[in-house]
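Entry 14. Two folds queued back to back today. First construct below, sequence then structure tokens.
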Amino acid sequence: MKEQADIKNINGKVLLEATADFNIELDEGVYRYLRPDFKLELDTYLSSFESFDHPGFLKIADPIKFEELPFIKNSPTWKTRADDLDFIQKHINPQSEVLEMGGGIGWLANRLSKDGHSVTSIDYFLGMHTGLKARNFYKDKNWISVNMDVKDIDQFKTKFDLLIFNRGITYYADIPGLIEKAKAMLKQWGKIIITGLNIYADDAKAMQHFDAIDKEFQDRFGRSLLIKPDSKKVLTDADKEMLEQMDFRMISADPLLKEWLKKDLFLDKNREYRAIYTARS
């Protein structure tokens, strides 16, 4: 790994700078912007996670498939991602500067960069088939990938036209505080989009489903599957109301996913939303 003084976007604008608290390293095309103590904790966790194979995880084993994402036939999971892409493309302005949180294996960053946007994609996960290093499977790599703690997004030196929470917001700690940080990073008329907001009618059953997977992970590795154990995990109507009070417009997602969730979690009346916020100043 090679140490860096800063991280620039594809247009040469400085995004992040190395400081006494944060080191910057370049690792197989991915920048790592981490506090040294958290880096040690994260690397230990990621070593365990990469060896934990669970059917519910989003892993692509065939490198050829990456370029096709999210348009994978006969996959309800990827159908919802394709719908997410369509939603985002309808609400993004041309040549936007985008920060994507939860970038994962890079499918959204790849699509948006092909559309002419300047994309910075961040995530905790680093693996070649599960995280940011998957960028190396794409033909074009015209976006910036940064392995960092989402709570440190206030370290960015620039503002953005669009911030995207690409699913998984339930696994971040202090969602209201994180959203307030995100709002402060927007340009005038900038937007925040949140995808994958699953509101469960029976949050106890949904939590039970998650806890079973978490217990399996804990039994093997002695720690929680969650990077942030104090994260929300499951959303309820109270969280929907919280987002509405923070001036997000809640938009119902594809109802087909509801049937898939029912089958997977044995729950009734689950609802999925996408949320959008627009800064006025």
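Second construct, same run, same settings:
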Amino acid sequence: MKIQIANFWLCEDGQLAPNSLHVNGRRQVQIAQFLRAAAGKPLNRKNTITTITFGVVREHASARVAEGYMLQHEAEIPEDGIVTFFCPDENEAEDVFYFDYGLVDTTDADQIGVSTEHSYTLIGGRITTVKPT
């Protein structure tokens, strides 16, 4: 899988494949409680929010380069925009999914020698196969 926000690659193919990919969807739900009713009634208020978390491990030429990359990386990431998910298979066919508007909620980075481990949390509305305009 490849993941991009506003034409900035968070995760590319090959060694940068995402790990620990997790998708969570939720809707706004209101609980109606009627006078003398036997039970409350949940009402779907829609407003779907999808949260996606994943990690990426990057290898660098040296520990110094890894440290510099880790310190500057968060500032380089666009805060919001169209998020695109490319899902290729072994036959080079590809499914593409979008958040029409998504944002990076959190980033986290750790350095281990010449490697950096980054985790991202993206938040958006519904995921769609229709490219936003």
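Quick look at the second one. The mean pLDDT is 91. Strands lie at 2-5, 8-11, 19-26, 29-32, 41-44, 49-59, 80-88, 94-112, 115-124, 127-128.
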